[in-house]
Design brief:
This protein is an alpha+beta fold. It has a single domain, classed as Dimeric alpha+beta barrel (Alpha-Beta Plaits). 29% of the residues lie in helices and 34% in strands. It has helices spanning 17-24, 28-48, 88-93; strands at 7-14, 53-58, 62-66, 69-73, 77-85, 107-113. The strands form 2 sheets. Strands 2-5-1-6 form a 4-stranded antiparallel beta sheet. A two-stranded antiparallel ribbon has the order 3-4. A hairpin with a 2-residue loop joins strand 3 and strand 4. The protein starts with 6 loop residues before the first strand and ends in a 6-residue tail after the last strand.
Length: 119
């Protein structure tokens, strides 16, 4: 399958805010060692799957826009990536052993991306 025939997907990496808050309270020595271990595993995974990754970006502060206006908000998204794969199933399967899933209550969502076309 050529890159032109592969499908595109949005990948969302999520961690509940309560887990993040608990992690921030963890002893810094323990936290640093665990973060280094995960960074190494993440780097290995990224290297093994580099061909499918188009881009990855870290999440930051979030604004919600509604008909009532703009407000600060929070969500569980900490990172997003755009990837290419042969199918939705193949894309999801690639993340089954992702190091992000070692974080308690974490999840990864893989969503099809389609061209919007004229409105």
């Amino acid at each position: 399958m050529t890159d032109a025939t592969k499908e595109k997907f949005l990948v969302l990496y999520l961690i509940p805010s309560s887990v993040m808050a608990d992690w921030a309270k963890t002893d810094p020595t323990i936290r640093q060692a665990e973060e280094q271990k995960m960074q190494a595993a993440w780097g290995k995974w990224m290297g093994e799957h580099a061909k499918m990754i188009i881009s990855s970006e870290a999440g930051g502060k979030t604004k919600r826009v509604t008909a009532s206006g703009i407000s600060d908000t929070k969500n569980d998204i900490i990172l997003c990536s755009f990837i290419e794969a042969e199918s939705h199933e193949a894309a999801a399967k690639a993340f089954e052993d992702h190091p992000h899933l070692q974080i308690p209550q974490s999840s990864i969502e893989v969503m099809c991306v389609r061209p919007m076309g004229p409105m």
